[in-house]
Amino acid sequence: MTTRGRPEADLPAVMAGPAPWARLAACRAAPDVDFFAEAPEEVARAKAVCEGCRVRLSCLEASLYEPYGVWGGLDVRARRRLRRSRQAAA
Fold first, then answer.
1. Is residue 50 part of a domain?
2. Are 60 and 74 in contact (CB under 8 A)?
3. Of all residues in the chain, what percent carry a pLDDT higher than 90?
């Protein structure tokens, strides 16, 4: 996982922590993909990696409040929309 501009130690706890699913994440095998990019083509590449990931839903749930990057196949705006729709349905 590329962390351009971010030291490895500054990664969100969702990937640095002991969550057993994190070791199985497809992004770990995609070192050339920038999951924190803002360029649409890079965001699309990151989402494509997530699309086939077997722990995508676990990642999404654990990172729902992450303020940056692609997590669980969703970018920041999509995660915000998901949170709002869940709150409205509750």
1. yes
2. yes
3. 70
